[in-house]
Amino acid sequence: MASPYDLLQSWLTRQLTDQGREWLGATLAKVAQPGDDKALYVALGLVPRKLGKADLALGSEELEAAAAARPGWDPRGWSVDQAARVLLLLGAAEVEPERFPDLLDTLCATADVGELVAIYRGLPLYPRPDSLVTRAAEGARSNMRALFEAVAHRNPFPREQFAELAWNHMVLKALFIGSTLYPIQGLEERANRNLARMLRDFAHERWSAGRPVSPELWRCVAPYAEGEALDDLAKALEMDAAGGARGAALALAANGGADARKVLARAPELAGAIESGRLSWETLSKETG
Amino acid sequence: MMFIDPHIHMLARTTNDYEAMAAAGVVAVIEPAFWVGQPRTHVGTYIDYLSTIVGWERFRAGQFGIRHYCTVGLNSKEANNEALAEGVMEILPRFAVKEGVVAIGEIGYDEQTELEDRYLRKQLELAKELDMLVQIHTPHRDKKRGTSRTMDVCEEHGLDPSKVVIDHNNEETVQEVLDRGYWAAFTIYPKTKMGSERMVEIARHYGSDRMMVDSSADWGVSDPLSVPKTAHLMLKRGIPEADVHRLCYGNALDAYGQSGQIAEADWTNPPEIDQRTLYEGNSVLRGQAPRVDSDGSGPERHADLERLSPDELGVEN
């Protein structure tokens, strides 16, 4: 099976001009020399100047190959410069995998935004993932939405590596900054009681302030739809016609317990839409995304 | 009308400024690396500063639909701290090839000390080695001689004047700068440097070839709307629109466009990856709904500059 390195290289080879291909080939050879960090710094910086920033052309076949090479790897929305930067990093990582986490920290200290987005998107592909958790959490803490989403969206790294606190803050922050939950991998698997409580508190804050609550919020509350949480879902179902109601209905349906089903029965139209597949977290994400 | 402010320190400005600039038609800004009002004492803070102007500030500007570029360099004031200067020279090449870095700058003289001279020359050599443009800060004091001397040094190091922008010009320096083939920039500043009215007279006298207007707005008394205000004043005073366009947009694009790092398409037709992640774009140009925040309220719009009187447009003390 092709490795992520091979895949990135073949996708780029297909899309680059002769000149671009030549530069990338020579540069990959250069960064594969041990002990020359400067070559890597300069190469990473030069990528958009040399190769441009076109979208990486990927069809379903390429996406399948990606997921087969590395489960969870989802390069949708990557650009040529990002793919080339990650490829260069993988080349450098191969030389001295032990040193890679330190190298990544040093690179991040002087990286521009484009470089940072690429570095974080590449997280699932690097060696020693357990040593990169602090770096990834730093990206998720960023005030730059593009960086936050590079870590949080279409990336299996957080689901696999983040401890509960970091995970919970990533999910809450996505809603807080008006981003979306749908592209986050592992929402069901990583659901937990603390997160459900944090999200409900956040919904209360927004209700008190008279501001809308994202319907997606209820997705992570679904497994804990009992007691006060069930009351919140009932409230969202009733008062939050703007969108929250649909999220609450989906959460109640997902919970599937007798109490949850009883509440859902108050909104037969939504229940029907869910039943028929017209309403799902995916259809909802197309509106909020 | 679209404007470029080719010299402004956005790091020191507020979100209101960004909104007002976007509303007034500013589509792109260039942020020169300079000091921050007080001297830095560690190379580490300098690294973070450069990292901020190539990263965070670029992102921040993009949220307001303004494209942000920068120049990187060791400024003349801090060149006088030798230990700091040596450290900065070591890390400078790492920042010089970042995306959106259009020149080595702003570099030049402050008091024309020996150390300032040494690091100016080293950076001119670096620009030559990396085939980059240079943005020159001319000194506030002993300006005329300092400006001539800077150009002498550029030529001594074999730089092509067409790849050097000399900034902070005034009536006393402009003739020589243009005669020697350099780009001449004018900083419209409320208290010192140039005022809008004086700029109108310069445009009348010298036309618009190889000249550009900037605000140099920073943490001091300064006006981030200097470029659009001066443009409107020039129009009101009868300067032809084509000249105003060149002075407040086209020439900055031509001069810094030589770097390959700034192009009109960056804001009229940005790459898709930037539209998705880094640039909120211009609603007029891209036919999208105006930017509103999550509460549904739009940005505060600046007063329509067309309606301001020459008095209100004049950025003078």
Automatic annotation (TrEMBL), chain A:
Record-linked InterPro entries: EboA_dom
Protein's name in the database: EboA domain-containing protein
Native organism: Ferruginivarius sediminum
